[in-house]
Batch of 2 targets.
Target 1
Amino acid sequence: MSKKTLIVIGNGMVGHHFLEQFAASEAASSFDIIVFGEEKQLAYDRVHLSEYFTGSTHADLAMGTADWYAEQGINLRLNEQVTGIDRENRTVTTPKGDYHYDELVLATGSYPFVPPIEGKEHPACFVYRTLEDLDAIRASAQDGKTGVVVGGGLLGLEAANALKSLGLNAHVVEFAPRLMPVQLDDDGGAVLRSKIEELGVQVHTEKATTAIVEGDEARLRMNFSDDSHLETDLIVFSAGIRPQDTLARQSGLDVGERGGIVIDNQCTTSDPHIHAIGECALWNQRIFGLVAPGYTMARTLSAALNGDSDAAFTGADMSTKLKLLGVDVGSIGDAHGQTPGARNIRYNDEQAGHYRRMVVSSDGKKLLGAILVGDNSYYDTLLQYALNGIDLPENAESLILPESQGGAPALGPDALPETASICSCHNVTKGDICCAIDAGCSDLGSVKGETKASTGCGGCAALLKNVVDNELEKRGVEVSKDICEHFPYSRQELFHLVKVNGIRSFRSLIRQHGKGYGCDICKPAVGSILATCWNDHILASDHVPLQDTNDTFMANMQKNGTYSIVPRVPGGEITPDKLIVLGQVAKEYDLYTKITGGQRIDLFGATLTELPEIWEKLIAAGFETGHAYGKSLRTVKSCVGSTWCRYGVQDSVGMAIHLENRYKGLRAPHKIKLAVSGCTRECAEAQSKDIGVIATDKGWNLYVCGNGGMRPRHADLFATDLNDEELIRAIDRVLMFYVRTADRLQRTSVWMENLEGGLDYLKQVVLEDSLGIGEELEQHMEDIVGTYQCEWKTAVEDPEKRKRFREFVNAPEKKDPVQEWTTERDQRRPVLESA
Amino acid sequence: MKARTRWDAVCSVADLVPDSGIAVWTEDGPVAVFYLPDRLPALFAISHTDPFSGSNVLARGITGDLKGEPVVASPLYKQHFSLRSGQCLEDETVQVKVYPVLLDDDQIRLEIPVAQAAVAA
Ligand code: SRM
Ligand SMILES: Cc1cc2nc3c(=O)[nH]c(=O)nc-3n(C[C@H](O)[C@H](O)[C@H](O)COP(=O)(O)OP(=O)(O)OC[C@H]3O[C@@H](n4cnc5c(N)ncnc54)[C@H](O)[C@@H]3O)c2cc1C
Ligand code: SF4
Ligand code: FES
């Protein structure tokens, strides 16, 4: 039987979500699917569009991958706009040709409304909707000082924040008498306004722009109807959205009076073969300008196309919770109290800038709506009361009072009914979560994977965690330890999130899966994970703030604020010429010099400013960084081996150098040390190392998970008589498995002790490939080996990175006054009275 | 009498490192200036001297927040200091100096106490 064709017009958030649903459904097998997207890029997360200004790339924001589309057999045609629909012949037209459809889905979204103001076509006027818009704004902001946003709604304030982050003086011009007229009331708007003005964004309300003309001091001048004016270098229009219904109009589908493609409860238009979902669709005279209702439409349509006669879209909750310019704003249900007989309870602390309003039913029993400004910690509880029609407690006002004034504690997860919606983006109820747990999910990560809860806008993350923890505890499961207050995950779970979702910056990780701004626990842990996954330079500007100072400045900080320098000396083998250079450099900068326990040379006492100069000299002489500062490979110790030693049976120095060069730069949960001994006398102390190699007359014996240090552990014998190739393969796999699964700051010894199944399990995974991931581990290692760069070489060659090494940015010649020195045993050392 | 102060320009926006700190030299000694672009206010300035070691290193610590309070962790012994109040979170008897900071065009200015002699001059 030949397949039918389903065409989707628009590859935005909702269109993509529809395809995810539909591709996984039964009906998918009877359709060829074609998708047209007018934008150049694959569907991306528009909700987090502004993060494009703070470091996220299209890849961070992308909703899926081209590979996924290919795997599903979907013909994805980006950068190809549909220009017409011929309903009679069931074809769509693009500049590249005509395409037949059996079923057509319009997911064309909306476009920003620009009021008809004279001068609005000026090149310094923009809208805020696509990545291309943001590129244009960024370019224009470069040589501007001031930026104005027209429109003080939700998107307008977000745009104002973006202008601010681009370094502009930001203004917001609003036609209505208050900010966010749709979501807030007068009092709430006033509190928001004063908070935002405190932050340096100027707000002008009740201003109607009459014309945009050339400015005197800035590029543009905006004239207002009250004869006042404002000069600015660029303007962003954010005066609302209009459904993109052009194709529907042209082809004679029913559209609403004020736009929008009319759909029924099954998301079908006035033509039974044409459907519409997302922001372009008009249901019950309403447009839904949020992503969650669009997703619900997508699911409904997918079910309807699968013949599910119960599938119906029945409206959606438009409650929102956001942080605008750092100020919490929340709006729930009937926020304006339009229900007949509704009563209000208000809390207003002008001093602190907190405003909260509850709209309560006439009998005082149910919560109809709410407004929050300044503190959203009340949101989740209020939303649950409103959505689930839970009876309000007797003293309902306690729900919005601060705790110190008798406020009620948050609604515990037990109080929620099974039907309570936890994640509205993916329509996950408390009952769904309980089912997932009963079916075997035993942590937050797997519940998320199973139900998709909290993988949309992320707004439900805290509530989801509460419910999951509570349900797990009730079932007697010990709730796993989170890495810190910012992420409800262990290091291993974070590793998966980063890897699986292709996340490349701390920012996008914490936005999507965490909360707050991070700390000295999660930042370095994530820095290390990102480095292992993507191997970017650790001084890439995104990563700088994640690192411990030692990583940031690629040297170990000493007690007086100076640093030590440890060049790599692979296997401990060094030429006289290189030794001489080390001596010369140490002398020139008066550095204290010591042979380390790791068979190399440490130079102490360099100031921040001197570090790059010193490294320039060392690099010129052929040295590389020794990563003495990193959670990464330290040294591979060797003994002299068969080349010189009368007992040696293999070239231990050669193997040590080979291993050191292979694994140098590998980032790990903790430092890694190796050693290679040339015979069983074991002069390199390999059995106290993470990886120990001891020569036999047939090849090498491999030992793993040894440790010196605070709690010594003898390494375990792992495999015997390996040839060179087998040895490397086994080490590749052990190390990579460790890197992927260990907790932060867990040496291999502790990892082994906590590994379920212990040594035998590790042997199965590595030697017998019981998980079938052997090749993948090797390939990952190969990628890391192949992308190695000496971080110091990259740093000294880059003037931007070198700027970081200024002791005092405004006083290059200034010597740090607390760094006092004295001489001991002919070398310089610090004087510091201990604090 | 209230001590005399002055708003001194210490560096430009281009010198700042997002989500991290830099050190500047002022008449009042070394000061660490932090720039947290996702927060408002985004600029903080505290003494650069770590009270536990006596070394000038605080600008080189990791920034973040603990229970909502913006903090830096000393790079030497890892105590946290509030960027708003200078209070050490681990030891209530320890506090570092905080300097009012503002952005003036593209210059960062700190409010620095001025020595009497300097005022007279
Ligand atoms: C320089 C050196 C001592 C020396 O003068 O010989 C040294 C110095 C430091 N060691 Fe070490 N360790 C040095 C060899 C060792 C060894 C011996 C070895 O590698 O053969 C050990 C025991 C072996 C082991 O790790 O299993 C060792 C076990 C530690 C530990 C405890 C680790 C543990 O698992 O218990 C720490 C603390 C930590 O990492 O958390 C540590 C931490 C440190 C730090 C990084 C402490 C710090 O944070 O400031 C010291 C920094 C020195 C610097 O500024 O460069 N150092 N340290 C040695 C450098 C070797 C090298 O060339 O890279
Ligand atoms: C800055 C910003 C912040 C936002 N914040 C939030 C938020 O916090 N919470 C929330 O719920 N919502 C938010 N939204 C709204 C949310 O992004 C939208 O609800 C969502 O993107 C709608 O999805 P959609 O697929 O209907 O439309 P879109 O994502 O706009 O996708 C439509 C796609 O169709 C393409 N297209 C149109 N016509 C054609 C054609 N003829 N041929 C081919 N392709 C075509 C368009 O180019 C576009 O790529 C925000 C929006 C913006 C811009
Ligand atoms: S043993 Fe202690 S004092 Fe000595 S180098 Fe190692 S960490 Fe420093
Ligand atoms: S509500 Fe948006 S992800 Fe759950």
Note: The domain at 318-411 of chain A is CATH 3.30.390.30 (Enolase-like; domain 1).
Target 2
Amino acid sequence: MSIGPRLTLAPAVALALLLFAVPVAFVLRESLFAPDLSLVHFERFLTRGVYIAVFEKTLAVSAAVSTICLLAGYPMALFIVTRPPRWRPLLLFLVLVPMWMSILVRTYAWMVVLGREGIVNNLLQWLGLTDGPATLLFTTGAVYVAMVQILLPIMVVTCYSAMTEIDPGLVRAARVFGAGPFRAFREVFLPLSLEGAVTGWSVTFILSMGFFIVPALVGGRKDMLLGNMIVNQVGQGNWGFAAVMAIVLLASTVALLGIVRLVASRFLYSPREEQA
Amino acid sequence: MSGEGRAPVRFEKVSRRFGDVVALDGFDLEIAAGEFVTLLGPSGSGKTTALNILAGFDRATSGEVFIGDRAVGGLPPEKRNVGMVFQSFALFPHMSVFDNVAFPLRMRKFARQEIAGRVARALEMVRLGGYGDRRPSALSGGQRQRVALARAVVAEPPVLLMDESLSALDLKLREDLQEEIRRLHHQLGTTVVFVTHDQGEALTLSDRIALMNRGRICQFDTPTALYDRPVSRFVADFIGRTNIVPVDAAGHAAALGISPDAATVKAVSLRPEKLRRALHPGDLAFDAIVEDVAFHGATVESRLRSPTGFVLRMSETRSGPLPPPSSGETTKVGFAAGDAVPLYD
């Protein structure tokens, strides 16, 4: 009986090792050989300002995109969850539809929308807001817009599912005991949904950190993220240096989310903790 | 905590329609200040709709609700100054027991010290003194419901609403909490509107019961009157168990010796425990065949067949003068004429 559960877990553990731990180990090994065991790749990453700058930019863009997604996605989820139950599936469906298209297709769509002859430029000129076509494509702004559009549905769904876990009776209770609609939200609904919001932020952050198609297609040269650098290095056959950047990306993401979790568990209510 | 602020509650021709469905149909009810009234009925009878309209979670399609002399139909829940105990407890899981009970006081902007004192007293009252620091998740079901009770009364609302408040608990806890609620009601004196589908609970707790069916009140009366003098088949059947003997051409009632004094009587209700084999002087009586006998602990339940073939249930206490009947025997069974309650529908 005591060994049974472990045995049944074995296939899953083996699969996880094979698919996740082994590749990471390969990447780690790659980063440490040049071709002999050395830290020369790490040294290069840390001593050339340009790589550090791209790394910082990746962190900043990811944090900003996740935060914008949160600020837009939380209210959207709140809107959906407060509609009558028969409308919710349709609204959720509308949010999810864009996710059925590949990121590549959606990014090309943004190139069309933001290009010199694109809808936005035509509209701006028609309204007389600009004389000639404005430079919208290949800008940092375009990167933000496209990344947020791609990641927003994930945020909405994550927040939504956290919100559906909240007993509507709790908000009613708050109302009966003297809280107005806004106060009831602040005292009860918000604290109970924050954990879901943090999860949404974390998921979008992880995904943002690895983005490279969007910056490559709609961003300018200075909008390169770490993902683009890795693609470049791999293209040039520098597997070792690409591996270093992959390790840095992985380690920094894990570290940052660890901190977020730690802070969240200290200050936020978690339904899972309650059941433990 | 005294009952100074208790208020009467009045529903005036309240209707609530959801599309084609009529949940409440011209609902009239007057509850005196300090009274414990239960809205009792099967699911879909409109009792929860009535409570939701009183609490402010729902609006009447027409009609008005009064708390005290104030029409509250247009007020949001937070302006109605009522306390409420929910079926699912609805304790805030992210707050301690203390903060849960303090919530209504905090919303009413009481001073911090006043809050501490009142919360301590309210927790003491439900015998949970010293539990303030715990999370609701660390409490048992009964303790959670007592916290919910403390939270509902801590601000001394003039009206206390209870929505199926004990249904989520098991039988033993439910009986304990019934006592607790009765004690609290005596102590606080607030008006209580209690909603339940459990007739036993209603009979135990209430000063008066409004028995509801299909959005209307069937009978609004004391528990004993509801039990002893039901005004309709539905009431007779819903409260306790009974034998409903039709007064018709088949002569079922006549065979039992019943001759109603009004032509409009369509049936009579005869409680199983009113039937007896040890006849009293003046009893109406008939010859019954005992078809089945079942032992129920304190009582023995028999299925009887009357001379016209009508099936009746009889319930006798085991401490009665005769030994239990045996299946298949024929016996005289009687009842006091006044125990046959005439029904007109």
Note: The mean pLDDT of chain A is 91.
